[in-house]
Amino acid sequence: MAADLKDVEIEKAQFVFSVYDFEGKNSIDAFEIGNALRALNLNPTLDLIGKMGGTKKRGEKQIKFEEFLPIYAQVKKEKEQGCYEDFLECLKLYDKNEDGTMLLAELNHSLLALGEKLTEDELDAVFKDCMDPEDDDGNIPYAPFLKKMMDNMVVINLK
């Protein structure tokens, strides 16, 4: 499966893996699999991360690069990863005025209550790093928010 990867992709995976190898033991905590994959510009769901061996808590399991590479190759093939355009189309559903804005309260509710829910702390971090101020009607421009969020995904996950 790792044979499906180009040399440059393997090099990138090695670099990202080394970033998450916090102790320099040539292994990463399985808790970091999702973050490492996101650093490689993939958007795996939490369910997929779990299926690929990711854990919900730190310290449960370590994986070597040789184990990570086939995970990367497999997730790279997955079709159920959202991209900017997919997420933008979803946010357009909340654009009642069709002017590129949505209610901040609706975005807040959606991120806390739907799908792969964020915690209050995660939401605070995302809003702090990515959110433009809301207007007098409580609306925010959602395209710049989404762009900043996707560009900063790795930074947010490292905090």
Give the arrangement of secondary structure elements.
Elements (H helix, E strand, L loop, with lengths): L6 H14 L6 E3 L3 H7 L6 H6 L10 E3 H13 L6 H9 L8 E3 H10 L6 H11 L8 E3 H10 L1 H6 L1
Written account of the structure:
With 159 residues, the protein is mainly alpha-helical. The protein contains 9 helices and 4 strands; from the N terminus they run H-E-H-H-E-H-H-E-H-H-E-H-H. The strands form 2 sheets. Strands 1-2 form a two-stranded antiparallel ribbon. It has a two-stranded antiparallel sheet with strand order 3-4. Residues 154-159 have low confidence and may be disordered.
Mean pLDDT: 86
Report how far the terminal alpha carbons are from each other.
32 Å
Number of helices: 9
Overall outline = elongated
Helix amount: 40-55%
Strand content: 5-15%
Low-confidence stretches: 154-159
Structure classification: mainly alpha
Number of strands: 4
Read across the widest sheet, the strand sequence of neighbours is 1-2
* H/E topology pattern: HEHHEHHEHHEHH
Rg, rounded, reads 17 Å
Major β-sheet annotation: 2 strands, antiparallel
